[in-house]
Amino acid sequence: MTNVHIITGGSSGIGFECAKEFTDGKVLITGRNEEKLAAAAKDLEGLGLDVAYKSSDISDQASVDDLLAYGKSLGKIKTILNSAGVSGVGASSKMTFEIDLLGSLHLIKAAEKAMDQGGALILISSMMGHVVPDNPAYDGLLAEPDGQGAIDQLVEIVGDKSDLAYNFSKKGVQLMVKKYADAFGEKGLRIVSVSPGIIMTPMAKKAAEEHAETMKRMEAVTPMRRNGEPQDIAKAVKFLASDEASFITGTDLLVDGGLNLKLGQLMANK
User: Fold this and answer.
1) Residues 258, 223: contact at Cβ < 8 Å?
2) In whole angstroms, what separates CA 212 from the centre of its chain?
3) I need a surface site. Which of 16, 32, 123, 189 has the fewest CB within 10 A?
4) Cross-strand partners of 82
5) What distance in Å separates the CA atoms of residue 226 and residue 243, rounded to the nearest whole number?
6) pLDDT over 70 (residue 195)
7) Rounded CA separation 70/198 (Å)
8) Cα-Cα end-to-end distance for the chain
9) Which residues are CB-neighbours of 148 under 8 A, at least 6 positions away?
């Protein structure tokens, strides 16, 4: 049976770069813009990949369930990568939580039911999730964002600071990975997250133009003395999705050139 690799946010950026790595089956890319998906699928086909695409919205559980049902119709779901999300720029705090946090939970719940044994769910988190301290006042809400009033309570905590909502959401992703590791393991599945640092996607390149001094300072203090490229994340994702990583679950992999080690210093000097 054909292996199916589902990639949300697969039409651009990190998701698109990751899609290039899955040459051992069918790649199903998804997102909200069907026109962009069709163009990306054509590009991937030009690289020799077997590609399908389907529009979906991860903030809607029914849409996610429908996506995975379609994936199962194509073969054996081996990998689900959640690269969809918003950066917190240009989105409200509530929208950021609904897409980045609740959307991840929707995929977790659907994947647990739909994935075949040996499969891996990989959620893109962020190094910024590591700057949010543990706190019982919100950790439970982040780990169970579908609880009654959870999203509204989180919005009250961060206010209208959507960048904070992004950081909190990414911490929540890491907490949910730990929470669901047992349930996934019982079914022969794995769940992990990857926390990128500064990755030079089109969005990051735009930020580099608008905040050149800040971006240069962050690059200078990064132990590897460079920013990341989408390929850095794609290679890590490919490994985590492979059978070589069959004993890795319930954890987060930082792929940031060591920048997380300097974040406290950078934030203190703001």
Assistant:
1) yes
2) 26
3) 32
4) 8, 123
5) 30
6) yes
7) 33
8) 54
9) none
Distances (CA, A) of 15 to 79, 82, 167, 178, 233: 13, 8, 20, 23, 9
Residue 75 phi, psi (nearest 5): 155, -150
Q: Which of 139, 126, 263 is closest to 193 using CA atoms?
A: 126
What is the DSSP secondary-structure string of 22-79? --SSEEEEEES-HHHHHHHHHHHHHTT-EEEEEE--TTSHHHHHHHHHHHHHHSEEEE
Q: What is the pLDDT of residue 206?
A: 73
Query: Which amino acid, one-letter code, is at 121?
Result: L
Q: Which residue has the tokens 């950026």?
A: 13
Residues belonging to the active site: 166
d(CA 70, CA 186): 24
Quick one: pLDDT at residue 73? Answer: 96
- Cβ contacts of residue 98 below 8 Å, gap of 6+? 59, 151
Q: How far is 194 from 151, CA to CA, in rounded Å?
A: 23
- The pLDDT of 180-192, averaged and rounded, is 98
Cα 143 from Cα 181, distance rounded (Å) = 13
Show the tokens assigned to 97. Answer: 């939580």
Distance of CA 101 to the CA centre of its chain: 10
Query: In sequence order, what DSSP letters do the residues of 227-266 get, joined into one string?
Result: -B-HHHHHHHHHHHHSGGGTT--S-EEEESTTGGGGHHHH
d(CA 193, CA 247): 14
Joined tokens for residue 64: 């996610």
